[in-house]
Amino acid sequence: MTMDPEFDQQILDLIASGLAGKFKKVTITKSTRLQKELGLDSIGMLALVFRFEELFSIDIAQSGADINVATLHTVDDLITAGRNILSKAQKSRGQ
Q1: Which long-range CB contacts under 8 A does 9-16 form with residues at least 24 apart?
Q2: What is the CATH number of the domain that holds 60?
Q3: Cβ contact 83:1 at 8 Å
Q4: By C-alpha distance, which of 69, 91, 87 is closest to 7?
Q5: CB 7, CB 47: distance < 8 Å
Q6: 24 falls within a domain
Q7: Does residue 78 sit within a domain?
Q8: pTM exceeds 0.90 for this model
Q9: pLDDT at res. 3
Q10: 8-57 pLDDT, tens per residue?
């Protein structure tokens, strides 16, 4: 998948939409740390994965994409993983 600023913004918006109270005021950049700066614990990451699947109308498990949320530390990590997941999902659909 090519670099698409619109995709990046969709991911930033997706993250922002799920933040809890005190984290809503944090300015989200690609270097923002998911757990430390945004308070995303394992449940928050799981919720983020579900919202990602809903937003892009994909099922990560069925696409064959392998995601290890323990390796996602920054917003940029999440964007990169999202690109990989969508690429695999498109290939599995034959697009």
Answers
A1: 10/55, 11/52, 11/75, 11/78, 11/79, 11/82, 12/75, 14/48, 14/51, 14/52, 14/55, 15/40, 15/48, 15/75, 15/78
A2: 1.10.1200
A3: yes
A4: 87
A5: no
A6: no
A7: yes
A8: no
A9: 61
A10: 999 999 999 989 889 999 999 999 999 999 999 989 998 999 999 999 99
Residue predicted with more confidence, 95 or 79? 79
Q: What is the mean pLDDT of residues 67-84?
A: 91
Residue 95 lies in a domain: no
Q: How far is CA 71 from CA 34, 68, 80, in A?
A: 11, 6, 11
SS3 74: strand
| Residue ranges making up the domain that contains 68 | 5-18+30-90
Establish if 68 belongs to a structural domain: yes
Q: Is 13 left (phi over 0), alpha (psi -120 to 50) or beta?
A: alpha
Q: Is the pLDDT of residue 91 over 90?
A: no
Q: What total of structural domains would you count in the chain?
A: 1
